[in-house]
Design goal:
CATH topology of the largest domain in chain B: Nucleotidyltransferase, domain 5
Oligomer: heterotrimer
Distance between the termini of chain B: 75 Å
Number of domains of chain B: 4
Chains: A alpha/beta (316), B alpha/beta (611), C alpha/beta (443)
Order of helices and strands of chain A: EEEHHEHEHEHEHEHEHHHEH
Largest sheet of chain B: 7 strands, mixed
Radius of gyration of chain A: 19 Å
Strand content of chain B: 25-35%
Radius of gyration of chain B: 25 Å
Number of strands of chain A: 10
Helix content of chain B: 25-40%
Shape of chain A: globular
Helix content of chain A: 25-40%
Number of helices of chain A: 11
Number of domains of chain A: 1
CATH class of the largest domain in chain B: Alpha Beta
Shape of chain B: globular
Largest sheet of chain A: 8 strands, parallel
Strand content of chain A: 5-15%
CATH topology of chain A: TIM Barrel
Chain lengths: 316, 611, 443
């Protein structure tokens, strides 16, 4: 007797979010990156459309990185000493199609750069590289509420992805992103309910749900990865079941978390594989953007995505 | 040392070195001390007007406050006669010690109470024992009959299923004077009722804050307090003090002699009953599933320090477990859901909320630690539902101006539970706050405060009182409503039922005469089902106690109900925190459960995924 | 459809007699639904009901015991598609392949290296589970290689013979270790079945399609062999995910017993990074045994750690070992913070302390994995417990001050804790998010 395959019939799907604007959309990017749009669980191609594969964003800072393990920094040679050169290296040497800029230099403890300085940096970066940008604040709410509007304006019409809005601090960022045509990252602390609540709050401000990306706050391999893994699985199942307020793609800061791990601080290979496994297991939970740090890990995860999705499609 | 408290204008004398908190306690003034007097919550701020004190340093007070003479009552000892002012945020605004209900609610729910009370008075003309047996009609064993009976004697009996006990004998015919008390012993509020056992009518009802609020706002803090030194005795005396005060107040108001009262029936959560009976409650905290055995059903009121007629009986309605007490059992008795065919739910909104689900076939229950917000406690301008309390508010969408109504029509003094529900509903509806409870609008009525932004309902200049709600208040209310709703939702889920399957919701709580169900639904306190399915039944614990007082049959029912209810411990339920997290939003994170339109649709669980 | 607690309740006597030890029949019914008690605890239950409940408790996916002795392990027995629905039960076995073409010494040293792959993380020992011997040449060499492996390790063995005859020889040599036979196909299953029956061994069934798999498993069962694992062979990774998903769905949702067996995956790859990434896919998506090639400890550690993460019971909080944890270059003047041993709480606190860049000590108190407020309410995070932890942690000898920072939510413990411990208590913030700035503003 033939076995009848069991196919899930999903009523919903993940919103498709586009990052970066080319000339025809009023921006200056050479490429755009499209994520989300799935109508099926990860890799179950037979059950629904999976139009986009997960993408890797290289994480760069506006200042030379602090607290990064030596082996990680040296993988970029001397480039990180000048963040603009570092950014260009990611694009030219490592084939980055998406950059994630963290404005760490704006943090009161890391230089306390003014909003104007930060905005100028964003403008220069946009000139130096032509890939789409994700721009993340310093993590200091009060400061970010001054810095992010300035940077948002400096990148007006470039359709960046700005982050991170939180439940206690989302209005300023959402208002700027709305005004300047960007999308937004909604960050929740490993809590699916807060993720959903924040999406509702942001959409109540007039923000279209298809311009929100969820940062579920992951833990690295061995450091609570499974919490985020299950939160993402649950979120994705809810999205496919028709819950529009959870139908956003996921961004995972895999590099940031992996390189905090004790294991990553030891040998080079151990760190690289830590970042690879963190990323590849989260792909199975539905990760759409992986923000990565080590170029070797990024290259390997890119290869792994090609194995999973077939071919070596360099469009993404 | 003589200490006088204002604005109550009450004095007490204490020993030198006693804390202001203990002085307030002995003066019968409840102070807000949610930490139980450990100097860490900072809620018992008082202002010293006169006198000398010694105070331990506290980082909770600002320099400005210190300069104004503000002290923490729990950390401050009196060194001389003193005068102390209690700011409204630290105390429990209340016109009188006891608030007497202006109208007596019909508590029968259209269900007349059958048969006689277990307290009966028999008049013996000849003073013969034979007469007594004849009066009892059946052959019960009667104990406690005095050797010699004079002619023309009235005997008061406590009659149970198979026996009768003589409580009292008195000369003459006193049958027309037969009274009892029914009490609801709440964590925050204690309510009492004087009932004429002959007519079954309530003479008067009154309530007061449980004096124990000065020893911690939640039961865990109080259980911890009970474990330290004289803690249990202090808590016991404090609750007895509150009960006795209400008893005296009711007797005065009803114009009766306490000697004519033979019985007090109490229902309360298991912890409160432990304190009332002066029993150690520590095991409740360790094993929440514990059966509340070891608590007597009948005892002598006098042995617990409760003052009613001589030799009077204290009846404590039995509970189900450590966190599901006799108040819940009493509630089930009151709404009679245990007799219904259809699925019913009882939602008791109190500091220790309780949810019971079931019908004649089964009964399950759980407790929800909701906190005292809906009883008007622990909030900047909260008060009980009594004269001066704002009971409904509406905010104008366009200019954010407010209109409100006040209980007793006088000028407003604070906001009661139903007022807060109405206010929240209106703030949400007008877009003044976001669904997370943060004030997002701007305007003349919005100002920064110590605990987030504040929305002003009336200004001091306008009404003599500054009445507002802060973001911290909203958070507090949000947690309370989330605890109640999520407990109900998870209890239903335990049984693979859905709240939408419940055909009748009995809602109970100290909301005064009314509760706007639609508003309670719109903030997510109650589930979104047709309005017709809700019945507001007031204080169900008190009505159940009244029924048990008036009818020996119903008293038996109460015992049967207690043994039938299956208790679920939410703290050990892995899904509870998730359900609670979903409910920490207005009205709820799963908006499809509160669509208001698709009322016949079954709510969608987020884990349903088309298989 | 499994019966709910209420369904079962209707079948019970409803007398609340308490003979089962619970206070009501409904409470008992709920336990039966959760399968945490058995029906025979009720003396009044009908035979019919008892039978119904027993059928209920048959697992949809078989649990197999692989190997013998202390290194044996259980595979299968899974009950859900997603770990948040309940949990994944039996951590998948991780094994390594050994070619019989290697020299005797190479085999022995490779097995020695495999034996040494043991790591400790968060109080648990992570170790590997299997060795697979693969035949590349003649029968004799295969048997010899099997014997060397058996002599060098107690780990369960997979025999990957190229013919039934070789498998019989090796199985005979290794029979007391209960080796796993690889593999039965539609062409050889009768021969494999006879080996399996003779030595009472488990078998991997290999077939490229589910139809063929279920055909072979049914045949094997009819031949009396039912300790089976399923393998769909080498395929593109996304097809492997599809197969694994289908197999589990067939078992769980359709109760298809022909596919109700644990899954076996060969995931060898010469590149350790790629191999680990593929292993990650199989760990998350339903494999019960995974055979790899790479034996470098950095690869094994990452794979085993992922397995530990994915197989953590989501309903049981992961605990860390309750002890003193220095953060950064903590010294005699460093602040001391106390928290619970719920790992999420601890790591959140740790993250914030690290962010402050102030070297500190964190003491985690054994609260049985409860978070701060829950532990306080349940009397696990008390002044006494904290005071004892301080005493046992040895912190007193490591610092020159006597200050202790406690979570804001348990400020109420301050007084008693000061009395009991002799420390001066400083009340910290309620939420971990405030710790970083709190530490910076200390002094």
């Amino acid at each position: 007797m033939e076995i009848e395959e069991i196919l899930e019939k999903w009523s919903g799907g993940v919103y498709s979010v586009s990052i970066g604007a080319c000339a025809e959309d009023g921006g200056s990017r050479k490429n755009t990156v499209r994520i989300g749009g799935q109508k099926s669980l990860p890799l179950l191609f037979k059950e629904g459309d999976i139009p986009n594969r997960p993408v890797i964003a290289f994480e760069i800072w506006d200042i030379p990185p602090q607290d990064w393990p030596e082996g990680l920094v040296s993988s970029y040679g001397k480039a990180p000493e000048d963040p603009l050169i570092w950014a260009q290296m990611c694009v030219k040497d490592f084939g980055a199609r998406l950059l994630c800029l963290r404005l760490q230099g704006a943090h009161p403890d890391c230089g306390d750069k003014s909003p104007e300085e930060c905005a100028r940096f964003v403008s220069s970066l946009l000139e130096k590289v032509s890939v789409p940008l994700i721009i993340i604040g310093s993590g200091d709410d009060a400061k970010d509420n001054l810095v992010m509007p300035a940077c948002s304006e400096a990148a007006k019409s470039e359709r960046c992805l700005l982050g991170c809005a939180t439940q206690e601090n989302y209005k300023t960022l959402a208002a700027s992103a709305l005004a300047d045509g960007h999308s937004i990252i909604a960050e929740s602390p490993i809590d699916i309910n807060i993720a959903k609540q924040l999406n509702i709050l942001i959409s109540d401000m007039g923000f279209a749900l298809d311009r929100i990306v969820i940062n579920p706050t992951i833990g690295a391999l061995g450091y609570g990865l499974e919490y985020a893994y299950s939160i993402m699985e649950r979120g994705r199942i809810a999205a496919l079941s028709g819950d529009k307020t959870l139908s956003s793609p996921f961004i995972c800061f895999t590099g940031q978390e992996s390189w905090k791990a004790k294991e990553a601080k030891g040998g080079d290979k151990q760190g690289v594989i830590w970042e690879i496994i963190t990323a590849s297991s989260l792909i199975q939970a539905g990760a759409d953007i992986l923000v990565m740090r080590h170029p070797e890990a990024a290259k390997r995860v890119f290869g792994h995505i090609s194995v999973l999705f077939g071919g070596n499609n360099s469009d993404h | 040392m003589k200490i006088t408290f204002y604005p109550a204008n009450k004095s007490t004398s204490v020993e030198k070195g006693a804390s202001i908190l203990s002085a307030a306690l002995s003066a019968g003034i409840p102070l807000n001390a949610s930490c139980g007097g450990d100097g860490v919550c900072g809620k018992c701020r008082v202002i010293l007007k006169k006198g000398e004190v010694f105070s331990k340093a506290s980082s909770l007070l600002t320099e400005e406050e210190k300069n104004k003479g503000v002290y923490l009552a729990c950390l401050t000892s009196v060194m001389s006669d003193a005068e102390v002012e209690i700011p409204s945020a630290s105390g429990f605004p209340s016109k009188d010690d006891i608030y007497f209900e202006p109208e007596i609610r019909d508590e029968t729910q259209g269900r007349p109470i059958a048969a006689e009370s277990f307290i009966r008075k028999v008049y013996l003309e000849q003073g013969l024992i034979e007469e007594l047996h004849k009066a009892l009609a059946d052959e019960k064993k009667v104990s406690g009959i005095p050797q010699i009976l004079s002619k023309e004697t009235t005997i008061t009996l406590a009659v149970t299923k198979d026996k009768a006990e003589v409580i009292r004998t008195e000369p003459g015919d006193s049958r027309s004077r037969n009274y009892g008390f029914a009490f609801d012993i709440g964590t925050t509020t204690v309510c009492g009722r004087l009932v004429d056992l002959n007519s079954g009518k309530t003479a008067c009802s009154g309530s007061s804050y449980n004096m124990q609020v000065s020893l911690g706002s939640d039961i865990i803090t109080r259980i911890v307090f009970a474990g330290k030194g004289e803690g249990l005795r202090i808590l016991h005396e404090s609750i007895c003090g509150t009960v006795n005060r209400i008893i005296r107040g009711l007797a005065d108001r009803g114009g009766i002699n306490l000697e004519d009262v033979s019985c007090i029936v109490c229902s309360g959560n298991t912890t409160m009953i432990h304190f009332l009976l002066n029993k150690d409650p520590s095991k409740i905290r360790k094993e929440p599933c514990l059966e509340p055995s070891g608590l007597p059903f009948f005892s002598k009121a006098g042995e617990s320090g409760i003052t009613i007629g001589s030799n009077g009986l204290l009846v404590c309605l039995p509970g189900v477990s450590g966190y599901l007490g006799g108040d819940a059992v009493s509630g089930v008795l009151s709404c009679a859901m245990y007799r219904e065919n259809a699925l019913c739910a009882l939602v008791d909104i109190g500091t220790n909320g309780e949810i019971i689900l079931g019908n004649r076939d089964f009964l399950v229950g759980c407790a929800a630690s909701a906190g005292p917000a809906f009883e008007g406690s622990g909030l900047s301008c909260g008060m009980r539902a009594e004269d001066g309390a704002i009971e409904s508010v509406s905010v104008n969408k366009n200019d954010l101006n407010v209109s409100y109504s006040v209980i007793g029509k006088g000028s407003p003094k604070g906001i009661c539970g139903s007022g807060y529900i109405s206010l929240l509903a209106s703030m949400l509806d007008s877009g003044l706050i976001d669904k997370n409870g943060r004030i997002k609008a701007e305007g003349s009525r919005i100002r920064p405060g110590d605990a987030g932004k504040e929305f002003v309902i009336c200004l001091k200049e306008e009404t003599g009182a500054d009445i507002f709600i802060s973001e911290a208040d909203i958070d507090n209310l949000k947690r309370s409503k989330a605890a109640i709703y999520s407990a109900a939702a998870i209890l239903a889920r335990h049984l693979d039922l859905n709240l939408a399957d419940v055909s009748k919701f009995f809602v109970s709580g100290g909301f005064g005469s009314s509760l706007d169900i639609e508003k309670a639904v719109s903030i997510g306190l109650l589930p979104d089902v047709e309005k017709e399915r809700f019945v507001f039944i007031g204080n169900s614990s008190l009505s159940g106690a009244t029924r048990a007082l008036l009818s020996s049959c119903e008293m038996c029912e109460a015992r049967a109900i207690a043994s039938r209810i299956t208790y679920f411990d939410l703290s050990s339920d892995p899904e509870y925190m998730d359900e609670y997290g979903q409910a920490l939003f207005f009205p709820h994170t799963d908006l499809s459960r509160f669509s208001g339109k698709s009322r016949h649709d079954k709510p969608k669980g987020e884990e349903q995924h088309g298989n | 459809m499994p019966l709910s607690g209420l369904d079962i309740y209707k079948l019970l006597p409803k007398t609340n007699c308490r003979r089962c030890g619970l206070s009501t029949c409904l409470a008992f019914a709920m336990q039966l639904a959760k399968k945490t008690m058995s029906a025979d605890k009720c003396p009044f239950i009908s035979e019919q009901t008892k039978k119904l409940l027993e059928e209920q408790s048959q697992p949809a996916i078989r649990t197999l015991i692989l190997g013998e002795g202390k290194d044996r392990f259980e595979a299968g027995g899974e009950t859900v598609m997603f770990r948040h629905e309940e949990k994944f039960r039996n951590p998948c076995g991780i094994g390594f392949v050994i070619e019989d073409s290697l020299s005797d010494e190479e085999i022995a040293s490779r097995v020695k290296k495999i034996n040494s792959l043991k790591f400790e993380r968060v109080g648990q020992v992570l170790d590997v589970n299997m060795v697979a011997v693969r035949q590349n040449s003649d029968q004799k060499r295969f048997v010899r290689a099997t014997e060397i492996v058996m002599d060098s390790t107690g780990l369960p063995v997979v025999l990957m013979g190229s013919s039934p005859a070789s498998l019989r020889q090796a199985a005979s040599a290794a029979s007391e270790r209960k080796p796993l036979l690889y593999c039965a196909t539609k062409d050889n299953f009768t021969q494999i079945a006879s080996i399996a029956k003779d030595f009472r061994l488990p078998v991997v069934v290999s077939a490229p399609s589910l139809d063929e798999l279920s055909y072979v498993t049914k045949e094997l069962v009819s031949l009396g062999v039912d300790a089976l694992l399923l393998d769909t062979g080498r395929k593109p990774l996304s097809e492997k995910i599809w197969d694994a998903t289908q197999i589990r769905r067939q078992a769980l949702k359709k109760a298809n017993r022909a596919l109700g067996y644990p899954e076996f995956v060969m995931a060898e790859n010469d590149d350790p990074y790629e191999e680990a990434a593929e292993a990650a896919v199989h760990i998350t998506k339903y494999a019960s045994v995974i055979i790899l090639k790479g034996i470098q400890s950095w690869e094994a550690l990452s794979v085993l750690t992922l397995r530990q993460n994915i197989y953590t019971d989501p309903q049981k909080p992961l605990q860390i070992e309750p002890r003193l944890y220095p953060v950064g270059e903590a010294g005699e003047n460093s602040p001391v913070l106390v928290t619970t041993n719920f790992s999420l709480t601890y790591y959140t606190v740790l993250g914030e302390v690290e962010a402050s860049k102030i070297p500190s000590y964190i003491i985690s108190v054994d609260t049985e994995g409860m978070s701060v407020l829950t532990a306080w309410a349940a009397e696990k995070f008390t002044a006494q417990a904290i005071s004892d932890s301080l005493e046992n942690s040895g912190i007193k000898k490591m610092i020159k001050h006597k200050n202790l920072i406690i979570p804001g939510y348990v400020a109420v413990l301050s007084g008693e804790l000061e009395e009991k411990s002799g420390f001066k208590v400083i009340v910290g913030p309620k939420e971990a998010a405030g710790i970083s700035s709190f530490l910076k503003n200390l002094n």
